[in-house]
Amino acid sequence: MSTTLDLNHVEAYSEFMQEIGQEMKQYSECFQGSCQLNRTEFTLIDVLRRQGSMMMKDLSTYLMDVSLSTLTRLIDRLEADNYVKRSTDPKDRRCFMISLTDKAAAILEGYPKLTSELAAEMLKSLTEAEQATLMQLIQKMRPQISKSRGGIKDEAGAYKA
Questions:
Q1: What CATH fold (topology level) applies to the domain 40-112?
Q2: Range 122-135 average pLDDT
Q3: Which keywords annotate this record (predicted)?
Q4: Ranges of each domain in the chain
Q5: What number of CA atoms fall less than 13 Å from residue 69's CA on the CB side?
Q6: What is the pLDDT of residues 35-55, one digit of tens each?
């Protein structure tokens, strides 16, 4: 399905996403500080909270600005601090699955509540019908998030800068 995009809409939506990102960043930085984790460490364990155990290469797609060697060192640190654990993938013993420990799960327990409070605050300005419409639109757009993870590609399939 090809759709013509109004550039004013694209710009307004882009600004809105950036505003949401800034709000989420402030919430997560506050939470990170209480956990004594840096942004990347927090992001990694939050991805594992949401997605479950993952192989390192899959985890790297969620941490786009982190090389595999840096990710390995990051996991080494988090494992030493008992936030994550490595286990052999039963399907391929050459691969490791990374998962949260009970310690990390306990720390992250309050984070979804915090982000839900932000979402509830934002939704207050909408009627129930508008909220339902927004949810339908989000569900329609959601597949594009995973398609564009890692960057936007040009017509030749190369990532745009």
A1: Arc Repressor Mutant, subunit A (1.10.10)
A2: 94
A3: DNA-binding, Transcription, Transcription regulation
A4: 40-112
A5: 0
A6: 778 888 988 998 998 899 999
